[in-house]
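Homework-ish question, so no full write-ups if that breaks the rules, but can someone show me the predicted structure for this set?
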Amino acid sequence: MTIKEVSEKYGITQDTLRFYERSGLIPPVKRTAGGIRDYGPEDLSWVELAVCMRSAGLTVEAISEYVRLSRLGDETFPARLQLLTKQREALLEQKKRIEATLDRLNYKIARYEVAVETGKLTWEPEEPPQSQNK
Amino acid sequence: MTIKEVSEKYGITQDTLRFYERSGLIPPVKRTAGGIRDYGPEDLSWVELAVCMRSAGLTVEAISEYVRLSRLGDETFPARLQLLTKQREALLEQKKRIEATLDRLNYKIARYEVAVETGKLTWEPEEPPQSQNK
DNA sequence: TCTTGACTTGGAGTCAACTCCAGAGACTAT
DNA sequence: ATAGTCTCTGGAGTTGACTCCAAGTCAAGA
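A: Not a homework solution, just the prediction itself:
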């Protein structure tokens, strides 16, 4: 699979794919005799992993460290486990922050829906809802 | 309230508070006769809003546009509603991406917990779980 | 009043994550 | 075999969001 096809498949640019490889976010990709990248199934699954992790906000550094450890062999299982656990923790926290912000947005949106109808905002212009859900 | 107190209260630096004000992420803060910032309750609630929205990943541009509209008066209710709705959409999508990534992390973590015990990874080294939850 | 420390501004610097570019080599259809 | 299109590399440039700095102002205690 050419870099063009891969970039289209995953919705990232060719430059980004090369950048990911240079940064160690994915291991070196197989090449043709002429030196052109030829992504195989294994390469693709690394790309897919990288795209997924990046889309959630993991840093390039964290992902490339995981890839580095993976290529080092079985002795790095504990290190990899620790890394993944830490990243999960970070994502759970980010998810909480997003949920808290969604609560506030929902509250504000509800008020503005009324405001657009009636022409005026209810209560004070700024006042958080102190949500307590979950 | 001084800028130092506010920065401690919300866990951001004084420089960031000044940057937020310069960028229009919060409206201009009240000043003392000598030109020193003196945050009142209203200022604080803007700061709180900005910190919350930023922590969820809204851009400085989006938040400052909301603040700009807010200071323009009642005719901007529809524009504000539209802006908030769009940001909510973006956050819901980001939340989904995080949840998908959490699924993968959980899958991998479970495998590594076994691997650390047994000394070997089960199944193929790379293979997504194809989660289908929710 | 003097000193010490917090606060001010405008502007420059940093960092992560791309994004773009030039010049050269590879492949494809005629 | 030549035009036209991809792809390559190394390196420079961009963007967003801070972060730091210098030089000066302000304020509270001895």
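Now go work out the reasoning yourself. Hint: Residues 13, 15-16, 19, 23, 32, 34-36, 54, 59-61 of chain A lie near DNA strand C (CB under 10 Å from a C1').
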